[in-house]
Automatic annotation (TrEMBL):
Residues 5-322 form the FAD/NAD(P)-binding domain. Keywords: FAD, Flavoprotein, Oxidoreductase. Its EC number is 1.6.99.3. InterPro entries: FAD/NAD-bd_sf, FAD/NAD-binding_dom, NADH-Q_oxidoreductase. One of its GO terms (biological process) is aerobic electron transport chain. Pfam families: Pyr_redox_2. Its cofactor is FAD. It is an enzyme of class 1 (oxidoreductase). GO terms for molecular function: NAD(P)H dehydrogenase (quinone) activity. The keyword Oxidoreductase applies. Belongs to the NADH dehydrogenase family. The lineage of its organism: Bacteria, Bacillati, Bacillota, Bacilli, Bacillales. It comes from Gracilibacillus halotolerans. This is NADH dehydrogenase.
Amino acid sequence: ETKPHIVLLGAGYAGMMTTKKLLQKLSAQDADITLVNKHNYHYQTTWLHEVAAGTIDVNRSRIMISDVIDSNRVHIIQDTVLKIDKDNKKVELSNSELTYDYLVISLGFEKASFGISGMDEHAFSIQDVNQSRLIRDHIEYQFAKYQNDVENRDESMLTIIVGGAGFTGIEFCGELAERIPELCKKYDIPRNQVRIINVEGMDSILPGFDPELAEYAEQSLRTRGIEFRLGTFIKEVKEGSIIVGEGEEIRAGTFIWTGGVQANRLVGEAGFELTKGKVNVDNTLRPAGYEDIFILGDCSWVLDKETAIPYPPTAQLAIQEADTCAHNIHTLIFGGTLQEFKYDNKGTVASLGGRDAMGTVFDGRKLYGIQAKVMKNVIDDRYLFMLGGPKLVLKKGKFRPF
Ligand code: FAD
Ligand code: NAD
């Protein structure tokens, strides 16, 4: 008798944690497990704004998959998924094709451009390790170029625009506030020649989040030289400038779009039923009509049964979904009761660069400054601990608050 084949696509938070949980629940005799990922490393998506600003080294944010997943038990394939053929139970990769009995789709997010002209061509986005590294180097290159060619230099080379003041945009501005003074020193450029402008369509930053905490974040960032243009929608992106509001042009050497994310486009192309670009899944995390497919993390749209409000696309959610997914795959193989996913919101903490942060914790308490920063580091280290135990925390962790 052949063993069932479980294929997982994407080694982000959801894919890594589900693989870990499956290894705990299933023996080598129970099933074959294959994990497919674009790179041979897993990265901390939640640290990418730090990589993009250059406040942490790239290698700190990534972990070799084979360092934390037993490659004797899991067939790890480094390849790019091109197509999911759900009706023939096949997955097309760049270099091969796979068939599966159970499929876990955890391919994460990509930038949502909302049809804004020029966004795909001219905007950077904090999306993966390679893009983030490119942003870091592009910003530094603007400084070097500005200082190198005094005759042709243009002040706007030193302007950085961050489009969107959601959590990604705000956390990234916090890192820039730390990094830019260092670059100014390195390239002998006065800080006041550099502009960092956050452009947000709504009238406040972090729309929908606790207003007191948002106000705290805004003040912290303004004090450290971040300018805000609130109530200002970005309408078009051109090479070297953006168009906002009623046609005003703002020139900038760097434009980073943090205006929103959508599911990896492969899930839409596979023909699943979508809401806002994400696959509708039920509380067992499966799309209607496909009992052997689980869709996790930023690829799926899961409603809270009680409130009918979708859960926010966060790492916290992706990690929690892994438990339910692994349990349910075990159930499908061996029988038992399927588990319904229930999100346990542990709060939201955002870093603001350096020692500053703010957020809410599970009991609704608000944290500010160093206290929030310590909590943020605890959250990050907790994940590393779950993934790779104390060894990984020591190697990559943030146990030192500063
Ligand atoms: P991801 O973590 O995005 O992983 C997807 C994986 O799939 C990646 O490894 C990728 O390489 C791989 N992949 C993609 N396409 C292919 C392909 N075609 N073939 C093969 N492999 C592929 N959430 C929080 O809860 N707390 C935070 O503090 C927080 N901070 C954030 C900071 C930033 C800068 C950003 C951008 C997001 C942050 N988020 C945070 C949101 C969080 O990172 C996402 O919700 C989370 O990463 C989703 O996890 P995932 O497993 O669905 O996908
Ligand atoms: P988002 O959708 O939360 O925020 C996008 C922001 O861009 C919004 O404020 C929106 O009003 C603005 N915007 C959209 N179009 C615009 C336009 N044309 N012009 C100007 N502004 C525009 O996206 P995000 O910040 O990337 O967050 C994605 C997900 O990741 C969220 O669920 C978030 O909670 C999560 N996240 C969490 C943390 C954390 O917990 N610390 C950090 C980063 C991201």
